Amino acid sequence: MKKFVALMLLAVMLATSMAAFAEPTENTMPIVTDGSVKLTVFMSMESGSEQAMATYDDHPAIQAWEEITGVDFTFIHPPAGDDGTYFNTLVASGQWPDIWIGTGFTDYYPGGVPQAVNDGILMNPNELVDAYASNYMNVRKSWDEATVRNFTTDDGLYRFGAATQVPPVVDKQHSGLVIRKDWLEKWGLEVPVTIEDFTNVLRAFKEHGVEVPFAGMRLDNWMWSGSNMLSAAFGVMNDSFQLNEDGKTVTYSVLEPGYKDWLNLLRGWMAEGLIDRDMVNRNDSDAQALFTSGRAGATFAGNWQTQQMNTLGQVSDPDFDLIGLTSLKPADDPAFINEFGDPIYNGSNTMWWTISTTCKYPEAAMRALDYLYSYDGIELMVFGPKEWKGEIIHTTDETGMRVFSDFILHNPNVPYNTIRYQYTIQNLSSEYCADMEMQQYSAPVNAQCWDAWTKDLNNRRRVPGSITLTSDESITQVNAMNNVRTFIREHINLIVCGDEDIANWDNDVQYVYSFGINDVIAVQQAAFDRYLAR
Amino acid sequence: MDIMKRHKSVGDWIADIIIIAVMVALSLICVYPILFTLFASFSDAKALLNRTGLLFAPLQPYTVEGYRLAFSNVKLSTSIWNTVIYVIGGTALGTFITGMAAFVLSRKSFLLRGFIMKMITVTMFFSGGIIPLFIIVRGIGIYNTRWAFLLPWIISAYNLIIMRTFFESVPAALEEAAYLDGATDLQIFFRIYIPLSKAIIAVIVMYYGVGWWNSWYQSLVFQPDNKLWPLQMILRETLISNDRSATMDVTSMAEESYTRELVKYCTVIIATVPILVIYPFVQKHFVKGAMIGAVKG
Amino acid sequence: MSAQVKYRKEPFRLRLVRNIRQHPWLYIMILPAVAYFIIFHYLPMYGVVISFQDYHPVRGITKSPWVGLKHFNNFLNGPFFWRLLRNTLSINIGLLLVGFPLPIIFALMLNESRSGPFKKVVQTITYMPHFVSSVVVCGLMVIFCRGDGILTFILSKFGMPQSNLLTYKQYFQPLYIAMNVWQELGWDSIIYFAALAGVDASLYEAAYVDGAGRWRQMWHITLPSILPTIVILLVMRVGNLLSLGWDRIFLLYNDMVMETADVISTYVYRTGMVQMQYSFASAVGLMNSLVNVVLLIGANALSRKFTDSSLW
Hints:
The complex is a heterotrimer of chains A (534), B (297) and C (312).
Chain A: H1 2-22, E1 38-42, H2 47-50, H3 60-69, E2 72-76, H4 85-93, E3 99-102, H5 104-108, H6 112-118, H7 125-132, H8 134-141, H9 145-150, E4 175-180, H10 181-186, H11 195-207, E5 212-214, H12 222-227, E6 241-243, E7 250-252, H13 257-272, H14 284-292, E8 296-302, H15 303-316, E9 322-324, E10 352-355, H16 362-371, H17 375-383, E11 387-388, E12 391-392, E13 394-396, E14 402-404, H18 406-409, H19 416-419, H20 434-440, H21 444-454, H22 471-496, H23 505-514, H24 517-533
Parallel strand pairs in A: 1-2, 1-3, 5-8
Antiparallel strand pairs in A: 3-10, 4-8, 4-9, 6-7, 11-12, 13-14
Chain B: H1 10-41, H2 45-49, H3 65-71, H4 74-106, H5 113-125, H6 130-139, H7 146-150, H8 157-168, H9 173-180, H10 185-196, H11 198-214, H12 217-222, H13 231-240, H14 256-294
Chain C: H1 3-8, H2 12-22, H3 24-46, H4 60-63, H5 70-77, H6 81-99, H7 101-112, H8 116-127, H9 134-144, H10 150-156, H11 169-197, H12 201-209, H13 214-239, H14 246-252, H15 258-261, H16 264-274, H17 278-306
Helix pairs in contact in C: 2-3, 5-17, 6-11, 7-11, 8-11, 9-14, 11-13, 13-17, 14-16, 16-17
């Protein structure tokens, strides 16, 4: 049976690659005219659109995409807050969608996309891309060597679907600490520079009756490790693999001596009531809600949220004004630089667009996806269709820049950041379109946050996100890390909340060794070495 | 119980007072969380957020804003409809199959009676786990259909045993005449047993109904298509996963950080009230039925 | 069926054929149920072989490699085995110790109440929580136990801390048990009300004439009358001592309380469904089932020995 399928595939590929030779540079649209090609697509919905439609089948950009390509798409979406269960069962079901959009394989499948290709779940992207994705190949040809490396796995697979970054965004730190500037001014406080300053500011907030001075979130929430603006002062990341001072040797942050001091800081904050126990269950949006409703004085945020947080905050308090902070320094080191930052560089996003081996129309699927790498395709997903149901969605201004219409920007009923996602889809945008980024980050608060967060920060000691593990390596890692993570998350929380004696920490670390962490560190080291050798 | 009315000692009086006090306290504990939720759902969002402690009335100004927001979630109405289908369909089909099987297994004249009873009992304590079940569901082609929600749980061995116990207690004399008239087993089931079993059928319907009402996990595993999901899946998104968007209204994002709590309470009420409203009316039946079914367990 | 037939001991096949001929409808009527149990219970049971494999969904059962008892060993020698077993047992035993006698006491007490309407109202109210879905009960529990929650507020008056109660490992099990008792107390008592209604009233009459007070009537007449019901239900509860639904704990627990909240079924869920270690999860589930069966058989044997009640 398998053999038969393989033969069929080969036949289809041969037949279609002939067609590709005939049309080497440009995809002609539509791909099909008779509506015979139906493709199912797995991807999660973005929150702005999720409330307005049950599936992307009803999304204007998708309908426009269907009209242009002639392909009929049907979407399946995981439930909100899926922990991987949904994705895993879909993979295990064998009834795969034709197209997978997202980070599911990277996040949940041992060995990621390369292993899924080896296991026969996904088609090899290179073969399809070479044959049908002329737009993508044009983009790829324009890259320098470093970018090409970032967009390629160890096995040489093209990371098809990972979005390219553009000038306004590249090299900037995109998430970090924010604090109530109006409160600092009102109560005569300086903008904190060191960890100690920051602690004192939180104390002052507490004295002025702020319920939760720092709105923390679950300690495994990515916001903590997205910038490490607090833990970096102790030379560690928040529960992650990191590089030693030399920038070459991989270690596990939890095992570093500084980690105990980091925990001790949080523990002190908890004891003083500067953070609260509810944070154990809180996600980043809950923490931000606490912040914007005036119940907290500081939290973590992304720069794509800061503008909106100001708007939200001003609903309850007209004076609400936030600023970003620079990575907090240890008291004795004014020259300190946070080397655990995550400034965005090209190819850092982990998105994949992949096609299942069970897909009956791989050519049509790849061509349809490749359309999204064309100028018009990028525009469609980033700015939505030009016009929809009599409403102008976006136009081009006199300088040639594409801008959203007033219907989107100043809609009386729906805020910009919500309505935008009812006409655009970020996960199908192949590029962080410059026109878009300039507008998205146009407010003064965006510039301030970028400046403050990016200052004294780099990613020298961070293990790059694009290292890839072999299948055996991932199994070693998964087996050990399941136990390590369960154990560590429990104990760091207990210590921070004061339910476990800090003196126990050394003991806990010994446990982590007993779970085989050294094997995992070796795996990470090997993968990192391969990355350096690419 | 009129014997107890003869005369009351002081001890009796004390006992009565204690009993009444305890019962009233228990009733309050049972009902208050739901009342609290009801009050909260009509309260002003900001007042709700800034208040700790008990509620004895909605916080002013009263509002139905939360309900409007809750219903603006497009997935909610689809899921309510799905739940109706699952509860009615699953209960009807399940009760019917269970009833027939229980009837057959209560027949002394059925040769495989003991064997099949054992076979069913084993399944109450031993299962192959979700992955093999998954393989079966996929294999028989019901993956990602409504059947995937219903079929794998359509019969409960526990309910079957209760029903069989009831049928066994039906006096044999009733059916002998029918047998002599040449009635088939099927006719006896429909003409004699079903009319006699209204109470037990009521209780089994109730058990199944509540079971289907509560189910959600099979959706996560067997139904990728969110148009097939029941209400409980949406509740889970709103209440537990803290899904931002599910509680976010298109028209008032700015209020979202306040209304999120309110919407949670409203969603709970929407999901709970229908069953609480129906329940007192059917209570009589199923309590009566439970008594019959329960005596032997 | 005549006595002669039995004595002759026909071969089973012949008896079956005749039975089918005599009662064709019985075989047709049982067919859907038998089909159900075979398809959805017995066929999946063969799937336990994946416990002895390194099952990979893409390769399937036929092509996955055999690894013997590896997964069983890994679990038994793993870092969490004792804690999972301890929590599973202690939550279940807690539920048994609190959740089992309370409905009996409740039923006995309410049965003593003389006012019919009062009785009915109390019953109606106390059955009600049973109809609130697990998702809603757990969702409310999470909200009520937060730092600003109403349950936290009430309990803080009794000396408990005024911050998120579900993050204290010493409170998790009591809260979990209390939540379950809250929901099932009334419902679980229905069976006892049923049994109580069946007690012969003339017994009370006789006891009253003999001068037995209320307390002694309850002790010597009421309790013995409902004892068989109690024992059967107890046996079934003991048989399920190691099986605890994962979903409610899953909806409630968090990293802080794993020490007391993580149970076998939640562990199986995490390893199996979230981390895709299907074989390992299946092995753990299989062990759990086996222990359950042993417990059930043991409890039933004890019950048969000390009382006359038995499940089979």
